[in-house]
Amino acid sequence: MNKRLGGVLLALQIASIPALAQVGHEVYNTPTIEATNRNTNSSVADFSDYFRVNALATYTNIGSIYWLNTNTAGTFITNGTYTTGTAATDYFGNGTARQAMEINGSSAPIFNNLVFQNGAMNIANSAGITVNRTLTLTNGITTTQRNSPLANSVRINTTNAGAITGDFSDTRHVDGYVSRVMSANTTYDFPVGNGGDYRPVTYRPTAAADFVSVAYIQGTPPQGVNSLGTDLMAVSTVGSWPVSAAVAGAVSVSIPDVSGFATAQNLRLVGWNGTQWVSLGQTASGTTEGSTLSGTIPAGTTITALGIGSVSQALPVTLGRFDAKFEGTSVLLSWDTYTEINNDYFEVMRSTNLQDWLPLGRVKGQGTTQTKQSYQFIDEKPLGGISYYQLRQVDFDKTRHTSPIRSVKNPYVQEQIGQINIYPNPANNRVLVKIPQISKDVTVQLFNASWQNTKVPAVLKDTHYELNVSQVTPGLYFLQITAGEGSQSVHKLIIQH
Q1: Max mean pLDDT range (186-190, 422-426, 450-454)
Q2: What is the pLDDT of residues 363-408, one digit of tens each?
Q3: Of 167, 201, 220, which one is at a domain's C-terminal end?
Q4: Domain named Secretion system C-terminal sorting: which ranges (predicted)?
């Protein structure tokens, strides 16, 4: 190690001890201390607690150093100046232990190559960090402050598009701001998210840009969702992307499931221009989790946030998660909503053929709310084989909307009915229902289009059931055949006289 005091360079060598290996290290006052050992294996900073560069002090790393290399948590503090040489690489963590670490202090450390290979990394430093060459994230979630987009951010001070690398996901991204300098007509990635929700952005500017900052926040945008341009009908409350110093160019975002908000054809990438949300484009790969929504920020327009918009009226309920699974011998249905407008209730529907749906029950809605709501419904008598479930959302004015469909296979009850023949269909005076195995446990019921039981008796013959429908009003009906306690089949029937 070399230590410079008052212009005199002193050579300090301790051959038997790895460079700076100790519990805690303080750098005081004005001298510059240079870590000159370029041997990665011996340039190890095993600080089990902290490393601190105090005010007025300067530390320069020109080699490769493993900071906080132990299996315990630690803090890297810069209140003075921390810089690196053009060949230096700073490693945080030993790549094995997933310990939480923190970068703190009042000034920004400047790294050349930086590798986070620990667990969660909290950049609590109010000045953020700067990386001049490459940032490699093999750790958990890296969190920054959000008070100032540029000052608090992870700043990538190179136009190299591949300067940020990592296997990014819901468990590995930057929860906060990423700032990048960009060259014209080059595509750059911003691996941002919020908590355990990874929502990356890609940006291809038409002109060079100096530190564009991007983040993602879940929930209703801070700008609200009511100030809309003339071509928009709604803006989603699932999340938005704050952008600082945006420039003209093509932008693409990864969206959550918005199938309950709008169709892919009606989706729009929207931007906040300071007074209202305006449409930036309409290219959507879909509406499900991880689909992309793309658009263009035009030249001469100041955009400070990106969002998800629609050119059609927003659905009264923005549905989030909708799951169906077996628990014990019952089927548990659970779902979330992000917003509700005049939502009276949910009607839980079940089908065996994706065509004929039977209502199982209702769950009261929350009317109008902008906060997340969670619901459950239990099907205590699931059918045999595969069943399909769907939510029918009903407004106070009786307007209805349906959810995506979920399927569940009953692992306990096997289908018993087999192939069923119903004829004639359409029917005039009578209907014959032929079942492979006639049994006293089989019931045949006729329901009208509103799922009211017509009470028409099904008379058991030698080889079939027979229903006299001569007095039934013509129209659409449903025949429900149930065998035992579990197996059930529903079929459409047209009656005409």
Answers
A1: 186-190
A2: 999 998 878 899 999 998 888 778 899 999 999 888 888 888 898 9
A3: 220
A4: 422-495
* Pair 382, 467 in one domain: no
Pick the closest to residue 135 from 111, 105, 103 (CA basis). Answer: 111
- Cis amide leading into 426 (omega within 30): yes
Residues 430, 401 share a domain:
no
- Cα–Cα separations (whole angstroms), residue 277 to 272, 281, 307: 5, 12, 8
- Collect all residues with Cβ–Cβ distance below 8 Å to 182 and sequence separation of at least 6: 159, 188, 203, 205, 208, 209, 212, 247
User: Which run of H or of E encompasses 471?
Assistant: none
Domains of the chain: total: 3
C-beta of residue 56 within 8 angstroms of C-beta of residue 74: no
Bond into 298 cis (ω within 30): no
User: What one-character-per-residue DSSP string does 266-333 give?
Assistant: TEEEEEE-SSSEEEEE-EES-SSTT-EEEEEE-TT----EEEEEESSPPPSEEEEEEEEEEETTEEEE
**According to the model, what pLDDT value does residue 314 have?**
63
CA 74 to chain centre: 30
448 & 387 share domain: no
* Phi, psi (degrees; rounded to nearest 5) at 171: -110, 5
- The residue-averaged pLDDT of 427-434 equals 91
